[in-house]
Write a structure and sequence with these properties.
PH-domain like, Recoverin, domain 1, eight-stranded mixed beta sheet, 34 helices, globular, PLipase_C_PInositol-sp_X_dom, PH_domain, Phosphoinositide phospholipase C
Length: 1123
């Protein structure tokens, strides 16, 4: 019985079995359902017929404030759509769709596919039955999403879910029929069925989709696998064998689910035996192992609608996955690697199962494989890197078992490059490790846990120090040893580490002018161990001396957060500054032998405040007026590691953020978590990373979100333990503050869209107390970064262990270099949200397109065969990553754009005159980029493509519109002066003419940008160079203008703003030129792939008339065999 649900009333039809989007037939509704439906039907009878015309105000726009919802669907999800035949059967039964009109009205109509699959019909309608239909032969294309003018430019349509929207382009004028289904599943079924009928019209007149090449490949492969198990050749196998075979062919499929399916088959057929036939085996596999979302994607991508040829795969990789420079040979290699059937491999065809395996492989993971190895510049000074740091690495269980060394090993294996070793006096003149509060614990048999000697710990560290990463290891040595045991400890260090131990060439010169102004780079320190600890004053000449120890050092590097900090006002600086007030520090004796081994002096908050006070007593604001890398008497922060408490760091971030960032450019800052005796929780990593703090130490024994974010951050650079800090932290001139709530100057915002499509093989939560195997998962998406970027959204709650979500989320990312995207899958239980899995990835490592997210457990362990399937698009993305990711930005609001590029008045005539000279060039550069963006977006809109589409997809649409009577493109692409223009013989329809005119505007805008970018960039760069030359004299220039206090600080702020803006626009212009050249190359390659003839005009053939850009384009075209 067919049942229609929605705003248009109820309708039933007999004689047909209802196939739901999940693919399962539905039985008679329950009495409660019938009562509810009858009540709704009675209500609808009282509504006039014209009420089918509605303005839908009930649909709320998706956003960050969405509430979590639970789907109580009565339809079974055990059987899924596994073929076009399922889609056509559903369409012939019909369902209700919302029809969107250009007049902002939304109509509810019941749509069906006629029994011959030749016509699309709908009712109710004021049209007669002949007019309320659309011939399949009149359909040109079927578009998913809201890509037509009706969807884009009419208010109510904006509130409709994009995942459920699709458009049918038909007729000579390419009119659009814009529809919205009740769910994304239903929309996918209609799109899949219509695409199949449009491209395979012969199947609408008798030929069945079950006869397609894809179906043949799949069933032949299953028959071959079945035959391997059917040793007797009787055509049957045991149930155990069939279950094992299916689980082997589709890893992750639960054995219980397969057995249940075979039991259902036995009951329905009233079989007395449990043996399985080939037909039953094939049916069970197709129902249990077909992923509907992959099948819908396959049908939309392929020419033969149920399998991918090499050229289809190549187009998919280039247009959707953002893989640049793919080749036919590379695509055939993918087919050979992932296609399970021998027939598919022989013919170079990727079947449904091959595509599913490929999408599940590491090649299609969300994480960019380029970052699996060290990929960043490792030759910069050490303070320019975030460093993976461990604070407390032992659980209570470790302490009871006495295996403290195992904790050290695990910390080193995950890439930690900074360990803390606390050493105390031990028996028999042998120093021992002090494991914090909890030392002296007893084993389960009440016997004391023997202490770990410092010597054995050092030998263990030396053994595992460089197995995971070759880059330097920092050991923070916190000791309270007697003079004699300090001597023993120094001997152990020298003997164990030997030449690995890095000792500065002139240890006594640390902090002196003339000594190395910056720390060495990780590359220079490869394979070396650096000790961090207390050092004797440089004037100390005896065998030992007295050093002070701040309280944070006594407590193992964690300052007490409740200590009172006071910073007296300095009115002349225009800011509230206070001097630190601490109790008198404790003093102790330090052996010179141990002091000389220390490479980095360990200090606390007092050192930072003293250093800052010296800077403020100078004549210029050091954080901006003097380069932090300059060697001056006031700038002696190098060769120092400063430990700050959480509260201290936060207060500095709110009161003196620029000073804190300037300090981190030459010195290392470490922020440890809470004291061990308080708890084992971890700090908010992003909170301190965005302050410039390089080492945020973690309790490695405490799993959770922070450990997951730390794993994501340091996998960004091959897991080597070092990751470059954002560029804005490394520049000599910077005005970044962590409290910024808007855009970052010189850095355009990025827009990340993530569509969570489905999940696969989700396990039950470990802490679940339910006895059945049913779970109700939902996915939480968290964006971590600067305050303006932080956001959290989540899907609805779905049923089963492999649910479909089909929900899209959008995030604005103002500082991509700090952003981390985190996925968390939870089980929506009655009492709590039970954890199922998690995965975090740095924004810079995200790959666009259809991607698999492998889920991890609480401890970071991989959950076998458990993943999410998503689709990612990124607009306005800066350089890096895949070529697709460098797409031109989407046009944004003009007000913010104007504010973003406005130069400010410094108040110093020499500088203002210099900056004024750049205004005209700056305006022209912006106009060039905006013109290209505007023309490109207009072309994509007319092609019916989303803003994230690339030029290859536009050329595909253009070629299809320019087809001649015999199906071949009736146009050619001519390279004039190296730029691809389209020549069309004779007249073309008005719609195609508009499209060609827009295309000409795109080429013209690209040409202007490519040919003028270098000159404008040189002009702007010259102004930046002159400004930086005057930078060192900024204080003197301000004094000549009579600047004091607030005016002087404001001048510095405006100067910094201008330099950042000019540098940022130079970078944007250069990237825009490279993207433009890439887009022009895409056009040439795509034209050749679509059958357009590519030629050179006679003028272009002469190299003397070719510019550099023309030669670049021609060279690439000839290299790829296009001309």
């Amino acid at each position: 019985m067919w049942q229609r649900q929605g705003c248009g009333g109820e309708r039933s039809r007999a004689g047909a079995q209802e196939l739901h989007p999940g693919g399962m037939s539905q039985t008679e509704p329950s009495s409660n359902q019938q009562d509810s439906e009858a009540l709704q039907q009675e209500r609808m009878k009282a509504v006039p017929r014209r009420s089918s015309i509605i303005k839908d105000h009930t649909v709320q726009k998706a956003g960050s404030g969405r509430k979590k919802t639970v789907s109580f669907s009565s339809m079974s999800s055990e059987k899924k759509v596994s073929s076009v035949a399922d889609c056509l059967a559903f369409m012939q039964g019909g369902c209700e769709l919302k029809k969107v009109r250009p007049n902002s009205r939304i109509y509810c109509r019941f749509y069906t596919l006629d029994p011959d699959s030749t016509c699309l019909c709908w009712e109710p309608s004021k049209k007669n039955s002949e007019r309320a239909r659309l011939q399949i032969s009149k359909i040109h294309e079927v578009r998913t999403g809201k890509t037509t003018d009706t969807f884009r430019h009419h208010g109510p349509a904006e509130q409709l879910p994009e995942e459920a929207a699709f458009s049918i382009i038909h007729g000579d004028g390419y009119q659009s029929l814009d529809l919205v289904a009740l769910s994304p599943d239903v929309a996918n079924i209609w799109v899949t069925g219509l695409c199949y009928l449009v491209t395979q019209p012969e199947h609408a007149h008798g030929g069945g989709p079950e006869d397609s090449l894809g179906s043949k490949i799949r069933y032949d492969w299953l028959a071959a696998e079945f035959g391997k198990s059917d040793e007797d050749g009787n055509g049957i196998v045991s149930e155990d064998t069939a279950v094992a075979t299916i689980c082997r062919l589709c890893p992750g499929t639960k054995e219980a689910k397969v057995r249940l399916k075979f039991k259902e088959m036995q009951r329905s057929k009233e079989k007395l035996t449990s043996h399985v036939t080939l037909e039953e085996f094939q049916e069970a596999y197709c129902e249990l192992c077909t992923r509907p979302e992959v099948y819908f994607l396959l049908v939309q991508l392929s020419q033969d609608r149920e399998c991918l040829h090499a050229q289809d795969l190549q187009l998919f990789l280039e247009t959707e996955q953002g893989v640049a420079h793919t080749t036919a040979e590379g695509c055939l290699a993918i087919v050979k690697q992932f296609e399970p059937s021998a027939l598919g491999r022989e013919q170079g065809i990727l079947s449904l199962d091959g595509l599913a395996r490929y999408l599940q492989s590491p090649e299609c993971h969300l994480f960019d494989p380029e970052h699996q190895h060290v990929c960043q510049n490792m030759s910069l000074p050490l303070p320019h890197y975030y460093i993976s740091a461990s604070y407390h690495y032992l659980s209570e269980d470790h302490l009871h078992r006495g295996d403290s060394l195992e904790g050290l090993m695990k910390a080193l294996q995950v890439g930690c490059r900074c360990l803390e070793l606390s050493v105390r006096d031990g028996p028999e003149n042998e120093p021992v490790l002090w494991l914090g509060h909890g030392s002296g614990l007893q084993n389960s048999d009440k016997t004391p846990t023997p202490p770990t000697t410092a010597c054995s710990a050092l030998e263990f560290v030396n053994k595992y120090a460089f197995l995971t990463s070759p880059y330097p290891l920092l050991i923070l040595l916190s000791h309270q040893c007697s003079s004699a045991q300090q001597q023993v400890l120094a001997e152990h260090l020298q003997r164990v580490f030997g030449t690995r131990l890095y000792i500065p060439a002139v240890p006594s010169a640390i902090g002196k002018v003339g000594f190395a102004a910056v720390l060495p780079s990780p590359e220079e320190l490869k394979g070396r161990v650096l000790l961090v600890g207390k050092k004797l004053p440089e004037e100390e000449e005896g065998s030992e001396g007295e050093v002070s120890e701040e309280e944070e050092d006594i407590l193992g590097g964690a300052p007490p957060d409740d200590r009172q900090m006071s910073f007296p006002e300095e009115e002349e600086m225009g800011v509230a500054l206070r001097n630190l007030s601490l109790q008198r520090p404790r003093h102790f004796h330090l052996r010179k032998e141990l002091s000389d081994l220390v490479a980095l002096r360990h200090s606390g908050i007092a050192y930072f405040c003293n250093h800052r006070a010296k800077q403020k007593r100078s004549t210029t604001p050091s954080s901006v007026l003097v380069s932090p890398n300059a060697t001056t008497p006031q700038n002696t922060t190098y060769w120092t590691l400063c430990s700050l408490g959480k509260v201290q760091a936060n207060r500095m971030a709110s009161e003196i953020p620029k000073d804190l960032v300037a300090f981190t450019q030459t010195a290392l800052i470490r922020v440890p978590p809470s004291l061990p005796h308080e708890d084992s929780s971890n700090l908010s990593l992003q909170e301190f990373w965005m302050l410039g703090c390089q080492l945020v130490a973690l309790n490695r024994q405490s799993p959770g979100a922070m450990l997951d974010l730390d794993r994501a951050r340091f996998t960004q650079n091959g897991g080597c333990g070092f990751v470059l800090c954002p560029t804005i932290f490394r520049e000599d001139v910077s005005n970044f503050t962590a409290n910024s709530q808007g855009f970052v100057p010189g850095m355009p915002a990025q827009t990340l869209r993530v569509k969570v499509i489905s999940a696969q093989n989700l396990p039950k939560p470990q802490g679940s107390d339910t006895k059945n195997n049913v779970i109700n998962p939902y996915v939480v998406l968290e964006m971590h970064g600067v305050p303006a970027d932080y956001a959290e959204q989540h899907t609805h709650t779905a049923g089963q262990d492999s649910p479909l979500f089909d929900e899209t989320f959008e995030f604005q990312v103002n500082m991509p270099e700090l952003a981390i995207l985190r996925f968390v899958v939870l089980d929506d239980s009655c009492t709590s949200d039970d954890f199922i899995g998690q995965y975090s990835v740095v924004f810079e490592c995200i790959q666009p397109g259809y991607r698999t997210v492998p889920l991890l457990g609480r401890e970071g362990d991989v959950l076998p065969c458990t993943s999410l399937f998503i689709h990612v698009t990124i607009t306005n993305r800066r350089g890096g990553g895949k070529a697709h990711a460098k797409s031109l930005s989407v046009l944004r609001g003009s007000h913010q754009d104007r504010e973003y590029v406005t130069l400010r008045n410094v108040g110093i005539k020499l500088l203002d005159d210099s900056f004024c000279a750049a205004k005209e060039s700056l305006t022209e550069a912006i106009e060039l980029r905006v013109n290209v963006q505007s023309a490109t977006v207009s072309l994509k809109e007319q092609c019916g493509l989303p803003p994230v589409a690339n030029m290859k997809q536009c050329i595909q649409i253009l070629a299809s519109r320019l087809q001649g009577p015999e199906g071949f493109p009736a146009a050619s692409l001519v390279l004039r002066d190296g730029y691809p223009y389209l020549d069309t013989p004779g007249n073309v329809p008005e719609g195609v003419h508009r499209l060609l005119t827009t295309y000409e505007a795109v080429i013209s805008a690209h040409k202007q940008l490519v040919e003028n970018a270098d000159g404008l960039q040189d002009q702007i760069s010259e102004v930046v160079k002159k400004g930086m030359e005057l930078h060192k004299d900024l204080a003197k220039l301000g004094q000549k203008e009579g600047m004091r206090g607030y005016r002087q600080c404001k001048a510095v702020e405006n100067f910094t703003w201008n330099i950042i803006i000019l540098k940022g626009q130079c970078d944007l212009l250069q990237r825009a030129k490279m993207v433009a050249l890439d887009s022009l190359q895409q056009i040439t390659l795509a034209a050749e792939a679509c059958g357009l003839k590519v030629t050179l005009d006679s003028f272009c053939m002469s190299s003397q008339h070719s510019s550099y850009s023309s030669q670049y384009l021609l060279g690439n075209a000839q290299e790829n065999g296009c001309v």
